[in-house]
Task: inverse folding
């Protein structure tokens, strides 16, 4: 299983970023895909998910500002982040169960910094 994130960076409050995650090594269509983040000094927070059955999850903290999408042709997921706030600053991880219930795989993470 390989998950490679890209698209992080620095942005001013109110700005936007789009994260991408390229997945390989497993059956993408049968797998749950997620975004999680970890802010400095805090634990891992699940941000958004799209499950193999099409159901979705979005954290209340980002609802209305972040949108997750999934491209089965490219084996990729995306996280479009709008109206970014300083509290969104974190390392963002792409994660998957790789099609195996209970399993968890994570990419290396991409840093998102929101500051003026």
Result:
């Amino acid at each position: 299983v390989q998950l490679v994130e890209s698209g992080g960076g620095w942005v001013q409050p109110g700005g936007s970023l789009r994260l991408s995650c390229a997945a390989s090594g497993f059956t993408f269509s049968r797998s749950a895909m997620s975004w999680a983040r970890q802010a400095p000094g805090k634990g891992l927070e699940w941000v958004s998910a799209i499950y193999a059955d099409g159901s979705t999850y979005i954290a209340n903290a980002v609802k209305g500002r972040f949108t997750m999408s999934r491209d089965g042709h490219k084996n990729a997921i995306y996280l479009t982040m709008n109206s970014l706030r300083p509290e969104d600053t974190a390392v963002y991880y792409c994660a998957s169960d790789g099609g195996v219930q209970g399993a968890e795989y994570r990419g290396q993470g991409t840093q998102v910094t929101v500051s003026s």
In short: The CA atoms of residues 73 and 92 lie 23 Å apart. The mean pLDDT is 96. The radius of gyration is 13 Å.
